[in-house]
Amino acid sequence: MGTAVGYALRKLLVYLSAVAMILFAIAHLTLLKLLSVVFPGLMKKIHLKMGEKFTMTQNPKFKYEDWGPSFFSLAFIKTVLSVNWCSLGLEAFEGHAAPDTALFTLDGQKTSIHRFLKGNRPLLDEFKQLVKDFSDVADFLVVYLAEAHATDAWAFANNVDIKVHKTLEERLAAARTLVKEDPLCPVVVDEMTNITASKYGALPERLYVIQSGKVFYQGGIGPWGYNPEEVRKVLEKIK
Q1: pLDDT tens figures, 62-78
Q2: Considering only CA atoms, which of 7, 195, 11, 2 is closest in space to residue 96?
Q3: Residues 72 and 26: beta-carbon distance below 8 Å
Q4: What Å distances lie between residue 39 and 52, 70, 120, 181, CA to CA?
């Protein structure tokens, strides 16, 4: 009974968090837009500070002009709404069963999350280091989801040219771009229903540790909550 109540309360929190995030994004955008008219220098300074939190300012490929203006676009608001709508399906909570959602391997074969759990199996530099350091105690899996910055949606300039996936074949092709970065572990893709992204609340990115079919660790929603160092601490305890 207590477990059921706890689960229900967490689901309620998911809905409240989604509403709060949408309202925060709209208010933040409105404030920055106002500052851009009255105090453009201050607005850019605040925006760059925000960029530091999700490493945009540390990426040598991007200038402020590549990503900054995109936050004032209608596409940004649509993305916020889409991501939070998807997150309403979140079912992966620490201490509860990990959803066994359907996935596809890059050769188009249907599989699922649980098939990659340790003992049952057939950002990237930090993640790859985790794979190297803890492959003896954990199996790693990358699930490629809906493209976060599709060129025909909320896009950054000077970024990879990937459009919103309309078919599974397009999603598989996009995932193969990630494979070229050699993540050192299997890469699979979410179904076109985005069922994994929804049940794990994973858009645009999120880290999980699953042990014996249950969620042992749930990371924050990226990019701000994406923290491989937290995963490292969890795996060190297991090791």
Answers
A1: 788 888 888 888 888 88
A2: 7
A3: no
A4: 21, 19, 57, 41
